[in-house]
Amino acid sequence: MDVAQRVAVVTGGGAGIGRALAARLAREGARVVVADLDADSARAVSEEVNADRPGSTVSVGADVSDTEQIQRLVDLAESTFGPVDLYFANAGIAGAPGLDAGEQDWDRSIDVNLRAHIRAAKLLVPGWLERGEGYFVSTASAAGLLTQVGSATYAVTKHAAVAFAEWLSVTYGDRGVRVSCLCPMGVNTKLLFSGEDSGDALGRAATRAVTSAGDVLEPADVADAVLAAMEDERFLILPHEDVLEMYRQKGSDYDRWLRGMRRYQSSLLAQT
What we know:
Belongs to the short-chain dehydrogenases/reductases (SDR) family. This is Putative Short-chain dehydrogenase reductase 2a. One of its GO terms (molecular function) is oxidoreductase activity. InterPro entries: NAD(P)-bd_dom_sf, Sc_DH/Rdtase_CS, SDR_fam. This protein is α/β, with parallel strands linked by helices. It has one domain: Rossmann fold. The chain contains ten helices and seven strands. It has helices at residues 16-27, 39-52, 67-80, 103-131, 143-146, 152-172, 201-213, 219-232, 242-252, 254-270; strands at 7-10, 31-36, 57-61, 86-89, 134-139, 177-182, 236-237. Helix 1 packs across helix 8 and helix 9 packs across helix 10. The protein is globular, with a radius of gyration of 18 Å. It starts with 6 loop residues before the first strand and ends with a helix. The relative contact order is 0.13.
């Protein structure tokens, strides 16, 4: 799909991958609603992009765990630019490490990393089916394919995000709804280093697991990969090519992979 002249919503747009996506979409001629829980960050990104591409973005502060606030994003896009063509479910949180995660941690992670995608799709897909087209881009993680050392809430909800994106594609892919699922490893964002700053051994191991497994990419590199995949209407977006081989190895011998992950975790914890 060519994104030029399309109307896009990018959640988690105030920093990291979301910020890079908003900038790249605008550069390609899309009109973008930049949404973030931090309204000031969203506004700063919008102003930065508009300085180069006047009028190409608007910003809004929104909590995407709330259906009414997602509806507000859609309404803002429609009233400012027109019907939403592209939705980037990019907002995400890391969650507490290990079994120390409480009920509120689980609820928040499920709401942001999974239910926000479901709620957005419920609002948008009916209209896309009527129009015969639409594009849903889910930001999951390599942790959604390979599991994350440290944070159960992150690993579980990212697996679920991948599964929901697959289900969307299977169910509506022949009716004009395009779906892509982004599964990067290390990206130079605040979220990547949240485990290192957690004060918890498993949290530190989580960050080190990612930073030692492959290159840490810049958000702009990831945005480039996303746009290239959308042009080809490709489902799985893997900015780190090694993830595909790791995924194949996991599927070919699950028990061997689990043993290897346990050894890897032990080596990481020994460094803390």
